[in-house]
């Protein structure tokens, strides 16, 4: 059983299928006995993944900066809610408290979080699995572009191999569990 950090969209105007994906992810994660670590928001896919985990009996840890609490977007139903003084300290706490990272479809905040944990992994600053869920080809354009980095010598092949790209929720959790042993 692991603490799995999920990065995903906070948008309130998403197509329902993305919210459903987040709900399914939270549910599957909880059914497998894992704890959800999240950015502690109650909006968009962030809210859906936490609600999905709790509906399946899972434990949820939200980590959110005070500024977002003040905007009333905190996941007040979280089993544990850690409040930080800023976005940087929040990200550090999310990384420290997690055993693995799973990125679902998202926007700029999601990409920022993915690239930080992946970069840290390439520098051996942690040895935690980093998995990207490319559901329905959401990330295929990005993945294609990333695949050009090593041939162009902008990244090393071993660094590229640290990002595990999968196309379904079960495959994502299987990949994390296999790497955690
Ligand atoms: C209107 C309002 C203040 C909405 C609340 N907005 C947010 N609440 C909580 N975490 C967020 C928020 N925006 C970005 N994040 C962080 O960035 C990611 C989502 O950003 P995005 O929607 O992909 O770019 C999340 O994983 C979360 O950790």
Describe the SSE topology:
Layout: E1 3-7, H1 16-31, E2 35-38, H2 44-55, E3 60-65, H3 66-70, E4 80-84, H4 87-96, E5 100-103, H5 108-122, E6 130-133, H6 140-146, H7 157-161, E7 163-166, H8 169-180
Bound molecules: N-(3-methylbut-2-en-1-yl)adenosine 5'-(dihydrogen phosphate).
Concise overview:
This protein is α/β, with parallel strands linked by helices and 181 residues long. The chain has helices at 16-31, 44-55, 66-70, 87-96, 108-122, 140-146, 157-161, 169-180; strands at residues 3-7, 35-38, 60-65, 80-84, 100-103, 130-133, 163-166. The chain is built from 8 helices and 7 strands.
Protein model, in words:
By secondary structure, the chain is of the alpha/beta class. It has one domain: 3-Layer(aba) Sandwich (Rossmann fold), CATH 3.40.50. Helices cover 45% and strands 18% of the residues. It is built from 8 helices and 7 strands. A 7-stranded parallel β-sheet has the order 4-3-2-1-5-6-7, with helices on both faces. Helix 5 links the parallel strand 5 and strand 6. Helix 1 packs parallel to helix 2. It starts with a strand and ends with a helix. The model has no long low-confidence stretch (mean pLDDT 97). The structure holds N-(3-methylbut-2-en-1-yl)adenosine 5'-(dihydrogen phosphate). N-(3-methylbut-2-en-1-yl)adenosine 5'-(dihydrogen phosphate) binds next to helix 5. It catalyses: N(6)-(dimethylallyl)adenosine 5'-phosphate + H2O = N(6)-dimethylallyladenine + D-ribose 5-phosphate; 9-ribosyl-trans-zeatin 5'-phosphate + H2O = trans-zeatin + D-ribose 5-phosphate. Keywords: Cytokinin biosynthesis, Hydrolase. Belongs to the LOG family.
């Amino acid at each position: 059983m692991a603490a799995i950090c999920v990065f995903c969209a906070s948008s309130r105007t998403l197509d329902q299928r993305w919210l459903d994906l987040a709900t399914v992810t939270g549910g599957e994660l909880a059914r497998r006995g894992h704890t959800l670590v999240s950015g502690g928001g109650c909006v968009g896919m962030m809210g859906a993944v936490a609600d999905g985990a709790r509906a399946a009996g899972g434990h949820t840890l939200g980590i959110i900066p005070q500024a977002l609490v003040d905007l009333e977007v905190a996941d007040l139903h979280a089993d544990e809610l850690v409040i930080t003084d800023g976005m940087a300290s929040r990200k550090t706490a999310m990384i420290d408290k997690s055993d693995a990272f799973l990125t679902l479809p998202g926007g700029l905040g999601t990409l920022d979080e993915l690239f930080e944990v992946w970069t840290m992994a390439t520098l051996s600053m942690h040895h935690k699995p980093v998995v990207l869920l490319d559901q329905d080809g959401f990330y295929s354009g990005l993945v294609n572009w990333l695949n050009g980095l090593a041939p162009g010598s902008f990244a090393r092949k071993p660094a590229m191999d640290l990002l595990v790209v999968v196309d379904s929720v079960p495959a994502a959790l299987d990949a994390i569990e296999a790497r955690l042993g």
